[in-house]
Amino acid sequence: xxxxxxxxxxxxxxxxxxxxxxxxxxxxxxxxxxxxxxxxxxxxxxxxxxxxxxxxxxxxxxxxxxxxxxxxxxxxxxxxxxxxxxxxxxxxxxxxxxxxxxxxxxxxxxxxxxxxxxxxxxxxxxxxxxxxxxxxxxxxxxxxxxxxxxxxxxxxxxxxxxxxxxxxxxxxxxxxxxxxxxxxxxxxxxxxxxxxxxxxxxxxxxxxxxxxxxxxxxxxxxxxxxxxxxxxxxxxxxxxxxxxxxxxxxxxxxxxxxxxxxxxxxxxxxxxxxxxxxxxxxxxxxxxxx
Length: 290
Description:
Number of strands: 10
Helix content: 25-40%
Order of helices and strands: HEEEHEEEHHHEEEEHHHH
Distance between the termini: 39 Å
Oligomer: single chain
Radius of gyration: 19 Å
Strand order of the largest sheet: 1-2-3-5-4
Shape: globular
């Protein structure tokens, strides 16, 4: 991971986009894992990949976001300029229009049931976007949109490492149920990283969806993991009803949530010092949602 500071961003803006050189640069309070984001004045944001593995998303979002924006009911990021690598920063980067709102997991005023309904409606609209120019799920999407079996080896390794720390038999049953299903229809758009940090709310309502770096066209099951990572109880049922997808899709979705929880807990994925994925695993084991 690169140490990306406001001074680096200042240098990049001054050199490559001098029309914006007088605008103040401030890091956003909450940073993502794949990218670092800085406010550029009141109306712009600078977004920079934190490591080489996330660079491909810059070009993909530049190409895909205008297509999606024309069809979706909520705002998505709008790229205004693409910056070039330089001696102070080695990757391409972007300047975007700032989207107002707070991330769901930072807002104290979220109506969770309404959010479940609104998010389900957004994902339904996303699936309806024409797929002609969409990239098929694959390595660029970390295999979101593909069949979850692509991560079978990781699941097996994680269960072996975790041993008695998890209910191995229950995990194996859920994973097996995910593997015997497949998306039977034409590929559809998926976001690839539907998480509380990538949903913005205003006055407690879903106002925008950000971070389409893992988006693509394929199986939408990967977009349903919020059922276990955020929603609880009846909220899950509201979400499931709004999404409107069949039982088999939910079995694969549960598999996606299981894989991420196990891989993280076993040290095969990104760090999780607060044990968030351990809590997710409890929810995955307890509730199939549909």
